[in-house]
What we know:
Blueprint: E1 7-13, H1 16-26, E2 32-38, H2 45-54, E3 59-65, E4 71-79, E5 82-95, E6 111-115, H3 119-128, E7 143-149, E8 154-161, E9 166-182, H4 185-194, E10 203-205, E11 209-210, E12 222-224, E13 231-235, H5 240-253, E14 258-266, E15 275-283, E16 297-302, H6 307-314, E17 322-325, E18 328-330, E19 336-338, E20 344-348, E21 356-365, E22 368-380, E23 383-395, H7 399-413, E24 417-420, H8 425-428, E25 437-440, H9 441-448, H10 456-464, E26 475-478, E27 481-484, H11 486-503, H12 505-516, H13 520-523, H14 528-542, E28 570-572, E29 574-581, H15 584-591, H16 599-623, H17 635-642, H18 645-650, H19 662-682, H20 687-711, H21 721-744, E30 748-753, E31 756-764, H22 770-787, E32 793-806, E33 809-814, E34 821-825, H23 836-849, H24 857-864, E35 873-875, E36 902-904, H25 906-911, H26 922-938, E37 949-952, H27 967-976, E38 987-992, E39 1005-1006, H28 1016-1032, H29 1040-1046, E40 1063-1064, E41 1071-1072, H30 1087-1106, E42 1110-1112, E43 1118-1119, E44 1133-1134, H31 1139-1153, H32 1158-1169, H33 1182-1191
Parallel strand pairs: 1-2, 1-3, 6-7, 6-10, 12-19, 21-24, 24-25
Antiparallel strand pairs: 3-4, 4-5, 5-9, 7-8, 8-9, 10-11, 13-15, 13-16, 14-15, 17-20, 18-19, 21-22, 22-23, 26-27, 28-32, 29-31, 29-32, 30-31, 32-33, 33-34, 35-36, 37-38, 38-39, 40-41, 42-43, 42-44
Amino acid sequence: MTKSLQKNLLVVYDTRKALEVARELFDMLKNVRRVKEKIEQLSEKDLLEKLAVRLKCSLFFSVQTGKKDTIYVSVGRLYNNEIIDYVRFRMLDFKPVSFFKKSPEKCCKYFLFAKGLSSRMSSLLLDMFSTKMSEICIDHVRYALVLCDRGATFSLRYTRVNADALEDVGPHFEMEKVNEYFCSEDEFKKSLGAHHDRKQKNVEQDESMRKQVVPPFSSVKVHIDNVLTPVLFVPQRNSISQLEADLEAFLASRKVRGNVSRASFKNYFYAFDEVVEVLRLECDKPHVLKSFCVPSCMQQIKEFSGPIENIIISRRIKGPGVVLVADYEESMCGECFVKSPASISFAGHDAFPPLRVMTMSLVFEKNDLVFYGIRIDFQDDSKILCQGAEHSKHGAKGAEPLVEGLKACIEEAKPDVVVFYNVPDVFFKRMPLRGVILCDIYQVASSSLKGRTFSLEELCRSVLNEDYKSEGDVKSCNSGRHEFNANAAIAEVNTIYRIFRALDVLELSKELTEICGNLLSRSMLNLIAERNEYLLLHEFYDKHVLFPPKRKIAADNSYKGGLVLEPDTGFYETMVLLLDFNSLYPSVIQEYNICFSSIRRVLQSAADKHQASEGSAQRENASGGENMCNQPCTFMHAERACMGPEKEQTGGSEHSHSELGILPSILKAIVVRRRHIKDILRGTKAVAERRVLNLRQKALKLIANSIYGCLGTPISRFYNLDMASMITQKGRDVLTETKVLAESVGLSVIYGDTDSIMINTKIDGFNFNTKRAMEAIEPLKACINRRYRYIEIEVECAIKKLLLLTKKKYGALIVGDKGSRVEGKGLDFLRRDFCKLSSEISHEVLKTLMIDLEENEEMFRSLYGRGFDSDTCTSKASQPSKCGPAPGNSADSKACSLQSPRRASKDFILKNIQLFKNDGNVKLAEYIYKRLADIKQVIYEEPIDSFVINAVLSRPPDKYATPDQLPHVSLALRLREKGIYLKKDDVVSYVIGAGRKNEQVSKRAYLKSENFELDYDYYISNQILPPIYRIISLSRLISVDAVNRIFGVLRMAQQPCQKTLSFITPCCKEPQEFSFACKKCKEGVPKSFYVARVLEMVRQETYNLYTTPQRCIECTFETCAPIVTCPNCCSELKYDPNNAAFDALLQNISDTLGPEIEEVGWILGLYFKNSGYRRIELAMFREEIDNYYSEI
């Protein structure tokens, strides 16, 4: 917001007495920057003018001591480095503030009353005593500065305005005019034109007040006093009168003044009646109430948790908007003081005022600031104005001078919003940023976007759709000295600012805050639980509901989440429809009226109905009733079978006709409002208006979908495990009933996850069958939507080909308006812990395996040597000649889409239908082999960036229990020794280099800028091949062995993870790796100690190996007894000893201790000699060996 202009005032004095007089006037001067200057002698106006020009002051005020200690006071102002107004007085009488019995209040506002002064004298004094006050009724003035010119004398009095008189409170000056000079009227008018934006003071001259206009926006700090948090006293039953008497007696004994009143509240969170009458006390000493304990009081409850919550909720301030402040007093520095929150009222929402945005680029070394660059942008009249790209670049040897320089820049710029990228929170605690909105682009992007590293380079590509135009590194090291690149800093701050604007962070946060009614600065931090908390607090306050207390809850309380149906894995080339429930959990809350006010009754009702249904089922089984399977199965029959008689009467929901509780009502209002905004959005063409409406509907969607999550989050104030459990239970019931309903009419449900379900229509997956598949599913969709009032299901998409691997992992070829596209969910190429090269290869394999030959004549021709017949082809509109990655896929993919502008006709497909099938397609398998072989040839030529692996630190690096087993943690700890500190939620980017034999992978993690040799074998075995294996696992003709041969891998057996051996030292009892000296006390560790520990370890693992329980596959019976059949069902018991892990442990001990301790090698040799795991009975493979040699 615009800050009011300040004027430099030169204050000149020559003696101590003169300084005391000057100080009396200092406290009355507002909005000035005083420049003190002590001089020995000053007698002429010209010298005063030169001094003011040199110090760049537009106003001057001098106090000098003449002969016989006579005080002379001079005031004046300059324009174009020349004095235009000058008046000199001689002091006749002076009374300081200490002379008067009642001193004036500090930081108060006053009016300037001028009587008998000329217009030029009034203008000069008006400029000298300038304030920020605007049009305020004179009846509310409490203090007045009275200037009176009686001709011979001139007086200045500071007075308190009473009802019938003025009371002097000091200081009081009586002076006579010695000399004056005023420039010509023409020059004076020029000076007024140059300073037209300067604020002026309300002046009453000749019994009329001059009302001046202030700038439309200015930053003001409002101090609110007497913010008293009411305390509620809950009485014992029928004892509120006794409690009131006890409370009044207690307050009188402690001499505490307070207002006691009765109030009625609804209670959903405490262990007493749902409607309770309480005593409400507001007092200025709430701490004394801790000792108030009487039999008539059941409980004390603070109505609000703090002063901020008190003001926001009680004054109904819902986000940034227009706030009316009444009965305020303004201080000398422009701050407003309000006596109580009652003077604050919320008028409504409005657009942002012009904001000053500061963008920062900061460089740290060992947590010390070594470089910064800033940019300041000011927005005026809803237009972004870059005022010359104001940048500051500094470099300093010490951190403190640089920090102080940055502080000075912030204080001078006075920003409203500060934007930065991944700066430690601790740093900003040292900056003067109180009341400033902070925005971390890294935090915003990582919480709202999909990406790998969320670096500026990646954000440029994903947000701005362009490459990051860097001018090099901001900081570099040359000959041991740090060098800073100013151009790089400018490019960085420009990029950060552009990303900030492109993400609409401020505007979206404003919409969220206006809906929820919390603080904008907190919404910018994406504090979802707190945001939803304020939304509910506002609603509860209006409904007179007691707020829940803030309490710490253990995070180990858990509940069952959404239902995930067991997938029917396979490669489907038939039409699969993905049906999705719109906002399932918010809809469930409304459908079943799940609320804090009704959860107890709902749970009790559910328990009663469960018992009744069990009894009814037993009676039905006893009577041997007929099954509906004997009748023709229709959607109506299936629906009635899934619904009980009660649901059939109420339309599927037990509580659909009851009055909605508070939480369902809130969600319903949000859903209705969002639907209305979307309707308006569809008919709006203006770009700016569409942007605002889209942000608003997005904010409503985020809030509706996040409320459920806060119910199950222990850190949330409205945490309610019963409600969260019931919501997910009802969600599981809805998905289960949908599955049963679909299967009862012959539809095949192949997968379902929380709020969606996949149905295999068993219709060939071609474009011309899409409408037919949709029509086949329409009765089911209508049937489900008819059952509920608020729950609605829709077809999310039609899938032509589906590679369903496991739960939450599948690849799909989806029908789209502009052609089909390949999407993946949960697959490895979407994960950041696989390098870019691995993602590109696995993505290309998936796209090729799922290629839509119906729409790709070029691929069809490359496989079969011919294209689509010209008379049986149809054109596709708006089809690009060469596409990048399909929508919804990774932006980093280098695989080029193989689509062409023509698609095959229905007749051509039906005549050659087998040619359009991908599973079991020999030509397609050969094509994939060829592509993999081509990729293998260029792997060693790929740039180092293609091998970078990204991993997130889920906690500080030193808080990991086993940091040596995780490459990114091990690297973070190593970087800390070099002064590079990584914190929680940071993304660590590393590569794996070659190392010594059997050296742990975690020890071979490097930054790409370090010197190392890349371990290509590791990347092939652990990064490239595993994702390919998972994709081709369901393909009939693509062989894992063939892929292994392409990449030169002879055996790809999964090796157990080799763990680091740790021993507890006998001296310090500290765990450490193998060493002949204690790392803590340096005392030697004997060989006998390690021999004993190895024997103990191997014997324990041998015992564990032979006590592995046997398990029955049919009835899950387990036993360690030496039997081979299950005593329950007589099925064969399965015994899966973990021989591989035991053998790996032996090998690990042998590699670590064997070369150093001979006894250990001898012990392990006995185990290896008798290990059946290391023997291979070739006779079992005679048939395979014979077949192999016969083919040769």
